[in-house]
Amino acid sequence: MADRSRLADDQLTERLSAVPQWSRDGESIVRTFEAPTFLEGIAFVARVAEIAEARDHHPDIDIRYNRVTLTLSTHDRGGLTALDFDVAEALDAL
Ligand code: H2B
Q: 20 to 30 A Cα–Cα from 48, which one of 17, 33, 39, 63?
């Protein structure tokens, strides 16, 4: 089970460096994926949903035509935890 404690600044810096396609936005990390078509973007979201369910950790999802923006934060802890970065790494591997 991933650690749901909020990460300290030095840990945040270290984990962010491992997911360079994600950017920090306050207490969240954000990445926009671009699919060839709208329908492929929707299919991608279905795979995101599988990962989210398997880990019981769910990104906010914004779909704009063929662009899918995922935002990760541990809402019930009010900040970023190891779980956010574990899920980001799993999403990067899709
Ligand atoms: N997802 C995210 N992103 N943040 C949470 O705090 C969160 C979640 N909490 N998924 C989970 C579900 C919580 O509601 C359950 C009970 O573990």
A: 17
